[in-house]
Design brief:
- The protein is mostly helical.
- It has one domain: Winged helix-like DNA-binding domain superfamily/Winged helix DNA-binding domain (Arc Repressor Mutant, subunit A), CATH 1.10.10.
- The protein is built from seven helices and three strands, in the order ααβααββααα.
Length: 142
């Protein structure tokens, strides 16, 4: 169980705070997505996420070469209230608001890529497509 002093120490670092705030809005986030959104190198992000994992604030799950993180929802009531209050106060301020915008873009891109890969497969990079043609027309071109 995390102590109050440990929780406040963890939240005092900007990178860890941004990770926690992002995780409060997302089901799970991959380290590579954190790196992109926070504009930071993967080893730094992984180190901060390891602190959060060791404290019990976040849980991790490895899938092939990627590690996904999510908030631990089995925290004590006081810790949950602190996290909720922090999120409520900071969600509309930068850099947190722009972090949400970036993760939303990633999510929409991932969903679009998933649909493309499932239904038509990986065919071209976007810059190889002809704008006046539909995607299907581009694919059927000789």
């Amino acid at each position: 169980m995390i102590s109050p002093a440990e929780l406040f120490t963890l939240l005092s670092d900007e990178t860890r705070l941004r990770c926690i705030i992002l995780l409060s809005r997302e089901k799970e986030i991959c380290v590579c997505e954190f790196s992109y959104v926070l504009n930071s190198i993967q080893p730094k992000i992984s180190r901060h996420l390891a602190y959060l994992r060791k404290s019990g604030l976040v849980l991790d799950e490895r899938r092939e070469q990627w590690v996904y993180y999510k908030l631990n929802h089995d925290l004590t009531k006081w810790a949950q209230r602190i996290l909720v209050n922090v999120l409520q106060e900071l969600k509309d301020d930068d850099p947190y608001r722009s972090d949400f915008e970036k993760i939303n873009i990633l999510n929409s891109s991932s969903k679009n890529n998933e649909i493309r890969n499932k239904h038509i497969g990986f065919i071209f990079q976007a810059y190889n497509l002809i704008d006046d043609l539909t995607l299907l027309e581009n694919v059927l071109m000789p």
